[in-house]
Specification:
Strand content of chain B: 25-35%
CATH topology of the domain at 1-79 and 213-271 in chain A: Rossmann fold
Oligomer: heterotrimer
Structural class of chain A: alpha/beta
Order of helices and strands of chain A: EEEHEEHEHHHEHEHEEHHH
Order of helices and strands of chain B: HEEEEEEEEH
Number of strands of chain B: 8
Number of domains of chain B: 2
Chains: A alpha/beta, B alpha/beta, C mainly alpha
Largest sheet of chain A: 6 strands, mixed
CATH superfamily of the domain at 1-79 and 213-271 in chain A: P-loop containing nucleotide triphosphate hydrolases
CATH architecture of the domain at 1-79 and 213-271 in chain A: 3-Layer(aba) Sandwich
Radius of gyration of chain B: 23 Å
Low-confidence stretches of chain B: none
Largest interface: B-C, 29 and 33 residues
Mean pLDDT of chain B: 80
Strand content of chain A: 15-25%
Mean pLDDT of chain A: 83
Number of helices of chain B: 2
Shape of chain A: globular
Helix content of chain A: 25-40%
Largest sheet of chain B: 8 strands, mixed
Number of helices of chain A: 10
Strand order of the largest sheet of chain A: 6-7-8-3-9-10
Shape of chain B: elongated
Strand order of the largest sheet of chain B: 7-1-4-3-2-6-5-8
Helix content of chain B: 10-25%
Distance between the termini of chain A: 64 Å
Amino acid sequence: MSEVSEHLIEIRDLNYSRGHRHIFKDLNVQIPRGQVTAIMGPSGTGKTTLLRLITRQLIPDSGCILVEGIDISTLNQKALYKLRRRFGMLFQNGALLTDISVFENVAFPLREHTRLPNRLIRHIVLTKLHAVGLRGAADMMPTELSGGMARRVALARAMVMDPDILIYDEPFVGLDPISMGVIVRLVRKMNDALGISSILVSHDVQEIATVADCSFLISGGKVAASGSPDELVNTRSELVRQFMHGMADGPVPFHFSAPNYAEQLLGRDAE
Amino acid sequence: MQQTRSVEIGTGLFVLLGLAALFFLTTQTTGSASFSDDEAYSVTARFENVGSLTDRAPVAMSGVTIGRVTSVEFDPVRLDAEVTFEIDSRFDQIPEDSDASILTSGLLGSQYIGLQAGGSDIPLAEGSEIQFTQSAIVIENLISKYLFKNNSDSNSE
Amino acid sequence: MIRDLWYTFTDFLQTFGKLQLFFVRLILNSPSVLLQRGGLVIKQIYNAGALSLAIIMVSGLFVGGVLGLQGFSILSKFNAEDSIGTFAAFSLLKELGPVITALLFAGRAGTALASEIGLMKATDQLSAMEMMAIDPLQRVLVPRFLGGVISMPMLAAVFSVIGLFGAHIVGVNMLGVDQGAFWQQLQATLDMSDVYEGIFKSVVFGIVASLLAVWEGYNAIPTAEGVGRATTRTVVITAIAVLILDFMITALFLE
């Protein structure tokens, strides 16, 4: 904390592979403070993996990840947990605990980490639920919620400890347009009203364009492009254009690598 | 709240039932509980042959169990078996010259020590030795005796 | 070929070593969980124990009844029907009680544990806890492990007692063995060490069955298929482990 580094999170020369597949090769990313940063990329480029590396749910093969100048790979469990309390993370499907109610889900971190009296906990939880518009669902069980509602509850839970950094893993996947709009608004609102930094992983170009201040496009284990969403849309790089405009064929080929089509149909590949 | 309450009641019932079952197993299925070390005195007896008598075999008088065998050992000097057994201290008026024999309960049953009261006024006490003993009946010996009418051996000391 | 075998062998050793370390972590975390999260443990005793009670009692009653019938048919050949109580008690307390309870536990509670934990993993609930700086080991795994460990000896004892009751119904009430003889023979032959052997077995089986269920769930591949496979593996591995351990403990107590 002594030295305030320029970037909130800095990833230097990160390498990570799963089995024989290299997911990241010498990846360098700088995530600025106080903004909504989007990490984009085609499915399977390891965006979620990157989030898990940043929060040290996974450990990189080499390279380092600095959060406010501290290399997180050096932390022991206690220090790591202390750091993680400053993170709020929203998982793809909410990841609400299915055996307790919505209210208890939001209260969960408070009950675990603080000794606040019940009345105060109730007050905080209802405030947070109100902020995501679900105060009325406090007594429901997570299984009774729709996908969009579950994600909003998860957002309330992620915020309940007043984190400095909110991480969203694919917040827009599988939502109807209305819920999507709600989430987009909430992301922006949380970031600006609470003065926190947001990191958002997604491949929904439209939503990112409306919500993100800056964005990184990852492809083939490296950063293919970075800049504001507008800059990316108007870029000349073919790969970026293909992704941003959703073209079926381009540098990312439509066909998965396969033997010659004609030869395979004629049965010559057996030889 | 109602749900937690029923969980807690269910758990309480289950644990009570489990403990009751454990208590039943430890107290009701074993007979040895009626003898404990501090309420018994031990007595020894020597037998030429103990058959298959083992530790914990009952010691009975008139068919009622009054004690338990605590050890069966071979004496390398006198070349016989020394059996130590405990008798419940409630029975402290057993004559010192009583005799002990190794008997079998039922056809397949295990062996036990039967005491036959003598006529002495001095009772058995801690550390006494019973002088008159009768060894276990070994079926092979019995058969050979019957076959060869060989009466020269006596089993008693 | 030999190389493959060697790799299989070292893989096995590695998994086994990981399992031991996992076990040590569960044990080390147990005291604080018992002190600070007693409510969670109670809930798991309910899930693993109280909810298994019905299947345990029904099975115990019928196993005891079968022992009564079989015992009678064998023992009556030697005119020793009176020993039917001894026969049933020996079988139940030393073998069938702990072993069948462990197998039923693996099927009823073990699978539930493994699939629940696997599902929590598949739906990121465990990662979410990690991210909230809450150790899933403390919140999820240890309470479930302890719930199983505490429940098993009680379930086994209930099984044995109900089984004796079943043997009593068949032997005394149906086949006419003298009730006094039933109990007297039983009490005369059974020794405290026999009872302890049964309790010891059920404690060991409780630890092993709970450990394996929690382990399989925690290491499940986080997909629907992976969770299903973990559930199956729980039953198979627990059954094998329990039977092997049963042999070893029996041999140990023989002396």
